[in-house]
Automatic annotation (TrEMBL):
CDD domains: TraB_PrgY-like (cd14726). InterPro entries: TraB/PrgY/GumN_fam (IPR002816), TraB_PrgY-like (IPR046345). It holds the Pfam family TraB_PrgY_gumN. PANTHER family: PHEROMONE SHUTDOWN PROTEIN, TRAB DOMAIN-CONTAINING PROTEIN. This is TraB domain containing.
Length: 366
Protein backbone atom coordinates (compact mmCIF):
# COMPACT_ATOMS: atom_id res chain seq x y z
CA UNK A 1 0.00 0.00 0.00
CA UNK A 2 1.11 3.54 -0.81
CA UNK A 3 0.02 6.99 0.31
CA UNK A 4 -1.25 5.74 3.65
CA UNK A 5 -1.01 8.22 6.46
CA UNK A 6 -2.18 8.78 10.03
CA UNK A 7 -4.66 11.46 10.92
CA UNK A 8 -5.49 12.55 14.46
CA UNK A 9 -9.23 12.68 15.12
CA UNK A 10 -11.14 15.32 17.05
CA UNK A 11 -11.13 12.90 19.99
CA UNK A 12 -7.70 13.21 21.61
CA UNK A 13 -7.74 9.60 22.76
CA UNK A 14 -8.39 7.89 19.43
CA UNK A 15 -6.27 7.44 16.36
CA UNK A 16 -7.47 5.90 13.10
CA UNK A 17 -5.99 5.19 9.72
CA UNK A 18 -7.33 7.18 6.79
CA UNK A 19 -6.59 6.28 3.18
CA UNK A 20 -6.69 8.38 0.01
CA UNK A 21 -6.06 5.64 -2.52
CA UNK A 22 -3.87 2.58 -2.95
CA UNK A 23 -2.22 1.58 -6.18
CA UNK A 24 -1.30 -1.94 -7.11
CA UNK A 25 0.67 -3.28 -10.05
CA UNK A 26 -1.36 -6.28 -11.22
CA UNK A 27 0.11 -8.26 -14.13
CA UNK A 28 2.00 -5.18 -15.37
CA UNK A 29 -1.23 -3.16 -15.35
CA UNK A 30 -1.27 -0.18 -12.96
CA UNK A 31 -4.67 -0.16 -11.30
CA UNK A 32 -5.80 2.67 -8.99
CA UNK A 33 -8.29 1.71 -6.31
CA UNK A 34 -10.95 4.08 -4.99
CA UNK A 35 -11.19 4.87 -1.30
CA UNK A 36 -13.90 2.29 -0.57
CA UNK A 37 -12.00 -0.44 -2.41
CA UNK A 38 -8.76 0.46 -0.62
CA UNK A 39 -10.50 0.27 2.75
CA UNK A 40 -11.89 -3.15 1.88
CA UNK A 41 -8.48 -4.42 0.78
CA UNK A 42 -6.80 -3.25 3.98
CA UNK A 43 -9.60 -4.75 6.04
CA UNK A 44 -9.02 -8.10 4.35
CA UNK A 45 -5.26 -7.82 4.90
CA UNK A 46 -5.78 -7.25 8.62
CA UNK A 47 -8.30 -10.10 8.80
CA UNK A 48 -5.76 -12.47 7.24
CA UNK A 49 -3.09 -11.38 9.74
CA UNK A 50 -5.42 -11.87 12.71
CA UNK A 51 -4.87 -15.21 14.45
CA UNK A 52 -8.08 -16.94 15.50
CA UNK A 53 -6.39 -19.08 18.15
CA UNK A 54 -3.27 -17.11 19.09
CA UNK A 55 -0.58 -18.49 21.37
CA UNK A 56 -0.46 -15.66 23.91
CA UNK A 57 1.57 -15.09 27.12
CA UNK A 58 0.30 -16.35 30.49
CA UNK A 59 -0.39 -12.76 31.52
CA UNK A 60 -3.27 -12.48 28.99
CA UNK A 61 -6.87 -13.11 30.07
CA UNK A 62 -9.62 -13.65 27.45
CA UNK A 63 -13.06 -12.08 27.99
CA UNK A 64 -16.11 -12.16 25.70
CA UNK A 65 -19.33 -10.17 25.26
CA UNK A 66 -22.85 -11.41 24.40
CA UNK A 67 -22.39 -9.99 20.88
CA UNK A 68 -19.33 -12.18 20.33
CA UNK A 69 -16.65 -9.50 20.77
CA UNK A 70 -13.38 -10.61 22.38
CA UNK A 71 -11.21 -8.69 24.84
CA UNK A 72 -7.62 -9.79 25.42
CA UNK A 73 -6.64 -8.33 28.79
CA UNK A 74 -2.87 -8.05 29.25
CA UNK A 75 -1.89 -7.86 32.93
CA UNK A 76 1.37 -5.95 33.33
CA UNK A 77 3.90 -4.72 35.85
CA UNK A 78 4.51 -1.01 35.26
CA UNK A 79 8.32 -1.24 35.43
CA UNK A 80 8.79 -4.43 33.41
CA UNK A 81 10.54 -5.10 30.09
CA UNK A 82 8.80 -8.46 29.75
CA UNK A 83 5.41 -6.73 30.06
CA UNK A 84 6.29 -4.61 27.04
CA UNK A 85 7.03 -7.80 25.09
CA UNK A 86 3.71 -9.34 26.21
CA UNK A 87 1.83 -6.28 24.94
CA UNK A 88 3.61 -6.27 21.57
CA UNK A 89 3.11 -10.01 21.09
CA UNK A 90 -0.62 -9.78 21.84
CA UNK A 91 -1.34 -6.81 19.55
CA UNK A 92 0.62 -8.31 16.65
CA UNK A 93 -1.18 -11.64 17.00
CA UNK A 94 -4.81 -10.49 17.33
CA UNK A 95 -4.68 -7.31 15.16
CA UNK A 96 -7.29 -5.51 17.32
CA UNK A 97 -9.94 -2.98 16.40
CA UNK A 98 -9.29 -1.08 19.64
CA UNK A 99 -6.45 -0.87 22.15
CA UNK A 100 -7.38 0.39 25.63
CA UNK A 101 -4.71 1.38 28.18
CA UNK A 102 -4.83 2.18 31.90
CA UNK A 103 -4.19 5.90 31.44
CA UNK A 104 -6.30 9.05 31.65
CA UNK A 105 -5.95 12.40 29.87
CA UNK A 106 -3.90 13.78 32.77
CA UNK A 107 -1.19 11.16 32.21
CA UNK A 108 -1.22 10.98 28.42
CA UNK A 109 2.08 12.88 28.26
CA UNK A 110 3.99 9.69 29.05
CA UNK A 111 3.00 8.40 25.59
CA UNK A 112 4.67 11.35 23.87
CA UNK A 113 7.97 11.51 25.78
CA UNK A 114 10.94 9.25 25.18
CA UNK A 115 12.37 6.98 27.87
CA UNK A 116 15.26 9.32 28.70
CA UNK A 117 13.00 12.36 29.22
CA UNK A 118 10.56 10.35 31.34
CA UNK A 119 13.39 9.01 33.46
CA UNK A 120 14.54 12.56 34.15
CA UNK A 121 10.99 13.81 34.83
CA UNK A 122 10.26 10.98 37.27
CA UNK A 123 13.35 11.80 39.35
CA UNK A 124 12.88 15.57 39.28
CA UNK A 125 10.23 16.57 41.83
CA UNK A 126 10.49 20.35 42.22
CA UNK A 127 8.46 23.22 43.66
CA UNK A 128 6.71 23.82 40.34
CA UNK A 129 5.36 20.25 40.30
CA UNK A 130 4.16 20.61 43.89
CA UNK A 131 2.34 23.85 43.05
CA UNK A 132 0.79 22.32 39.94
CA UNK A 133 -0.42 19.25 41.86
CA UNK A 134 -1.97 21.41 44.60
CA UNK A 135 -3.63 23.72 42.05
CA UNK A 136 -5.07 20.77 40.14
CA UNK A 137 -6.18 18.56 43.05
CA UNK A 138 -6.35 20.75 46.17
CA UNK A 139 -3.90 20.87 49.07
CA UNK A 140 -4.37 17.41 50.59
CA UNK A 141 -4.84 15.52 47.31
CA UNK A 142 -1.99 17.44 45.70
CA UNK A 143 0.43 16.65 48.50
CA UNK A 144 -0.61 12.98 48.38
CA UNK A 145 0.05 12.95 44.63
CA UNK A 146 3.54 14.36 45.23
CA UNK A 147 4.23 11.67 47.83
CA UNK A 148 3.17 8.98 45.34
CA UNK A 149 5.39 10.60 42.71
CA UNK A 150 8.19 10.31 45.25
CA UNK A 151 7.50 6.58 45.49
CA UNK A 152 7.56 6.31 41.68
CA UNK A 153 10.84 8.26 41.61
CA UNK A 154 12.26 5.88 44.22
CA UNK A 155 11.41 2.86 42.04
CA UNK A 156 12.70 4.67 38.94
CA UNK A 157 16.01 5.37 40.65
CA UNK A 158 16.32 1.79 41.89
CA UNK A 159 15.59 0.21 38.51
CA UNK A 160 16.90 2.87 36.13
CA UNK A 161 13.66 2.51 34.16
CA UNK A 162 10.82 4.98 33.57
CA UNK A 163 7.22 3.86 34.28
CA UNK A 164 4.61 3.22 31.59
CA UNK A 165 6.78 1.38 29.08
CA UNK A 166 3.96 -1.08 28.34
CA UNK A 167 1.60 1.79 27.45
CA UNK A 168 4.11 3.35 25.07
CA UNK A 169 4.60 -0.07 23.49
CA UNK A 170 0.83 -0.45 23.07
CA UNK A 171 0.60 3.01 21.46
CA UNK A 172 3.40 2.17 19.03
CA UNK A 173 2.01 -1.25 18.06
CA UNK A 174 -1.57 0.04 17.70
CA UNK A 175 -0.30 2.52 15.10
CA UNK A 176 0.87 -0.38 12.94
CA UNK A 177 -2.55 -2.07 12.80
CA UNK A 178 -4.95 -0.79 10.08
CA UNK A 179 -8.09 0.92 11.47
CA UNK A 180 -7.00 0.34 15.08
CA UNK A 181 -8.25 2.94 17.58
CA UNK A 182 -6.34 3.85 20.73
CA UNK A 183 -8.36 4.71 23.86
CA UNK A 184 -7.45 6.01 27.30
CA UNK A 185 -9.44 3.85 29.69
CA UNK A 186 -8.68 5.02 33.23
CA UNK A 187 -10.64 7.31 35.53
CA UNK A 188 -9.26 10.90 35.67
CA UNK A 189 -6.55 11.00 38.31
CA UNK A 190 -7.88 14.13 40.12
CA UNK A 191 -11.15 12.26 40.82
CA UNK A 192 -9.24 9.26 42.17
CA UNK A 193 -7.04 11.35 44.47
CA UNK A 194 -9.90 13.46 45.80
CA UNK A 195 -12.06 10.41 46.52
CA UNK A 196 -9.11 8.64 48.14
CA UNK A 197 -8.31 11.56 50.45
CA UNK A 198 -11.98 12.02 51.35
CA UNK A 199 -12.22 8.33 52.29
CA UNK A 200 -9.29 8.44 54.77
CA UNK A 201 -9.46 9.61 58.36
CA UNK A 202 -7.00 12.25 59.57
CA UNK A 203 -4.98 9.58 61.40
CA UNK A 204 -4.85 7.35 58.29
CA UNK A 205 -3.69 10.30 56.17
CA UNK A 206 -0.89 10.98 58.63
CA UNK A 207 0.18 7.30 58.72
CA UNK A 208 0.10 7.00 54.94
CA UNK A 209 2.07 10.21 54.44
CA UNK A 210 4.64 9.09 57.00
CA UNK A 211 5.09 5.73 55.27
CA UNK A 212 5.46 7.30 51.83
CA UNK A 213 7.90 9.96 53.07
CA UNK A 214 10.29 7.41 54.54
CA UNK A 215 10.03 4.71 51.88
CA UNK A 216 13.56 3.51 51.20
CA UNK A 217 13.36 -0.28 50.72
CA UNK A 218 15.51 -1.53 47.85
CA UNK A 219 13.61 -2.82 44.80
CA UNK A 220 15.00 -5.17 42.17
CA UNK A 221 13.77 -6.14 38.71
CA UNK A 222 13.01 -9.59 40.13
CA UNK A 223 10.66 -7.96 42.65
CA UNK A 224 8.87 -6.17 39.83
CA UNK A 225 8.42 -9.39 37.85
CA UNK A 226 6.92 -11.04 40.94
CA UNK A 227 4.12 -8.46 40.76
CA UNK A 228 2.91 -10.31 37.63
CA UNK A 229 2.25 -13.43 39.72
CA UNK A 230 -1.43 -13.32 40.66
CA UNK A 231 -1.13 -15.26 43.93
CA UNK A 232 1.68 -13.05 45.29
CA UNK A 233 -0.12 -9.91 44.13
CA UNK A 234 -3.37 -10.95 45.82
CA UNK A 235 -1.44 -11.56 49.05
CA UNK A 236 0.06 -8.06 48.85
CA UNK A 237 -3.38 -6.62 48.10
CA UNK A 238 -4.91 -8.35 51.12
CA UNK A 239 -2.20 -6.82 53.34
CA UNK A 240 -2.97 -3.40 51.88
CA UNK A 241 -6.71 -3.87 52.46
CA UNK A 242 -6.05 -4.65 56.10
CA UNK A 243 -3.96 -1.50 56.49
CA UNK A 244 -6.02 0.99 54.42
CA UNK A 245 -9.33 -0.55 53.25
CA UNK A 246 -10.76 2.82 52.11
CA UNK A 247 -7.66 3.51 50.04
CA UNK A 248 -7.88 0.14 48.35
CA UNK A 249 -11.53 0.73 47.54
CA UNK A 250 -10.96 4.11 45.85
CA UNK A 251 -7.62 3.46 44.14
CA UNK A 252 -8.10 -0.16 43.09
CA UNK A 253 -11.71 -1.43 43.33
CA UNK A 254 -13.41 1.67 41.90
CA UNK A 255 -10.95 1.86 39.05
CA UNK A 256 -11.61 -1.82 38.34
CA UNK A 257 -15.23 -0.80 37.74
CA UNK A 258 -14.26 2.16 35.56
CA UNK A 259 -11.81 0.10 33.47
CA UNK A 260 -14.42 -2.64 33.04
CA UNK A 261 -16.92 -0.05 31.77
CA UNK A 262 -14.37 1.40 29.32
CA UNK A 263 -13.41 -2.03 27.98
CA UNK A 264 -17.05 -3.00 27.48
CA UNK A 265 -17.66 0.25 25.59
CA UNK A 266 -14.66 -0.45 23.38
CA UNK A 267 -15.92 -3.99 22.71
CA UNK A 268 -19.07 -2.83 20.91
CA UNK A 269 -19.51 -4.19 17.40
CA UNK A 270 -17.66 -2.41 14.60
CA UNK A 271 -18.65 -1.68 11.01
CA UNK A 272 -17.00 -3.84 8.38
CA UNK A 273 -16.63 -2.75 4.73
CA UNK A 274 -18.01 -2.67 2.13
CA UNK A 275 -21.58 -2.55 3.52
CA UNK A 276 -20.87 -1.26 7.06
CA UNK A 277 -22.07 -4.58 8.43
CA UNK A 278 -21.87 -4.83 12.25
CA UNK A 279 -19.34 -7.48 13.30
CA UNK A 280 -17.89 -8.43 16.71
CA UNK A 281 -14.88 -6.38 17.79
CA UNK A 282 -11.44 -7.50 18.94
CA UNK A 283 -10.00 -5.43 21.79
CA UNK A 284 -6.67 -5.48 23.62
CA UNK A 285 -6.69 -4.01 27.13
CA UNK A 286 -3.40 -3.12 28.83
CA UNK A 287 -3.79 -2.77 32.62
CA UNK A 288 -1.77 -3.38 35.76
CA UNK A 289 -1.95 -6.97 36.95
CA UNK A 290 -3.67 -5.79 40.14
CA UNK A 291 -6.76 -4.80 38.13
CA UNK A 292 -7.20 -8.05 36.17
CA UNK A 293 -9.10 -10.03 38.82
CA UNK A 294 -11.38 -7.07 39.56
CA UNK A 295 -12.22 -6.60 35.88
CA UNK A 296 -13.02 -10.31 35.61
CA UNK A 297 -15.36 -10.11 38.62
CA UNK A 298 -17.16 -7.05 37.23
CA UNK A 299 -17.33 -8.15 33.62
CA UNK A 300 -20.92 -9.48 33.66
CA UNK A 301 -22.27 -7.12 36.34
CA UNK A 302 -24.40 -4.01 35.95
CA UNK A 303 -22.14 -1.07 36.73
CA UNK A 304 -22.88 2.41 38.15
CA UNK A 305 -20.18 4.74 36.83
CA UNK A 306 -21.76 7.98 38.06
CA UNK A 307 -21.43 6.82 41.65
CA UNK A 308 -17.64 6.50 41.44
CA UNK A 309 -17.17 9.77 39.52
CA UNK A 310 -18.62 12.10 42.14
CA UNK A 311 -16.44 13.93 44.66
CA UNK A 312 -18.17 14.69 47.95
CA UNK A 313 -17.69 18.19 49.41
CA UNK A 314 -15.54 18.32 52.55
CA UNK A 315 -17.40 17.66 55.80
CA UNK A 316 -17.94 20.39 58.41
CA UNK A 317 -15.70 18.50 60.82
CA UNK A 318 -12.96 18.32 58.20
CA UNK A 319 -13.34 22.05 57.54
CA UNK A 320 -13.00 22.77 61.28
CA UNK A 321 -9.92 20.55 61.56
CA UNK A 322 -8.25 22.21 58.56
CA UNK A 323 -9.08 25.66 59.93
CA UNK A 324 -7.60 24.75 63.31
CA UNK A 325 -4.45 23.37 61.67
CA UNK A 326 -4.07 26.46 59.49
CA UNK A 327 -4.60 28.70 62.52
CA UNK A 328 -2.01 26.73 64.48
CA UNK A 329 0.51 27.04 61.65
CA UNK A 330 -0.03 30.78 61.33
CA UNK A 331 0.20 31.09 65.12
CA UNK A 332 3.50 29.25 65.22
CA UNK A 333 4.81 31.38 62.37
CA UNK A 334 3.74 34.56 64.16
CA UNK A 335 5.31 33.41 67.43
CA UNK A 336 8.55 32.59 65.61
CA UNK A 337 8.58 36.07 64.05
CA UNK A 338 7.86 37.60 67.47
CA UNK A 339 10.73 35.69 69.09
CA UNK A 340 13.00 36.60 66.23
CA UNK A 341 12.05 40.27 66.49
CA UNK A 342 12.77 40.26 70.24
CA UNK A 343 16.19 38.79 69.57
CA UNK A 344 16.88 41.43 66.93
CA UNK A 345 15.71 44.14 69.32
CA UNK A 346 18.05 42.96 72.09
CA UNK A 347 20.93 42.80 69.63
CA UNK A 348 20.27 46.37 68.47
CA UNK A 349 20.03 47.67 72.02
CA UNK A 350 23.40 46.14 72.85
CA UNK A 351 25.16 48.17 70.15
CA UNK A 352 27.29 51.08 71.58
CA UNK A 353 25.94 53.53 69.01
CA UNK A 354 22.33 52.81 69.96
CA UNK A 355 23.10 52.98 73.68
CA UNK A 356 24.81 56.38 73.18
CA UNK A 357 21.82 57.65 71.24
CA UNK A 358 19.40 56.54 73.95
CA UNK A 359 21.60 58.13 76.63
CA UNK A 360 21.51 61.46 74.78
CA UNK A 361 17.70 61.22 74.51
CA UNK A 362 17.33 60.54 78.23
CA UNK A 363 19.78 63.37 79.24
CA UNK A 364 17.95 66.75 79.35
CA UNK A 365 19.58 69.44 77.26
CA UNK A 366 21.06 72.50 79.09
Amino acid sequence: PQNVYKKKCSCSTSYVLEINKICFDLENVFVCLADSEAVEVLWQVRTQRRQTEPDLPDTVTRLTTPEGSVVYLVGTAHFSDSSKKDVATTIRAVQPDVVVVELCQYRVSMLKMDEKTLLKEAKDINLEKVQQAIKQNGVMSGLMQILLLKVSAHITEQLGMAPGGEFREAFKEAGKVPFCKFHLGDRPIPVTFKRAIAALSLWQKARLAWGLCFLSDPISKEDVEKCKQKDLLEQTMSEMIGEFPALHRTIVAERDIYLTHTLRQAARCVEAPPNAEKVPAVVVGVVGMGHVSGIERNWDKELNIHEIMSVAPPSRFGWVVRSVLKGAMWGLLGYACFRASKGVGRALLSLPTVQSLLENIRTPSV
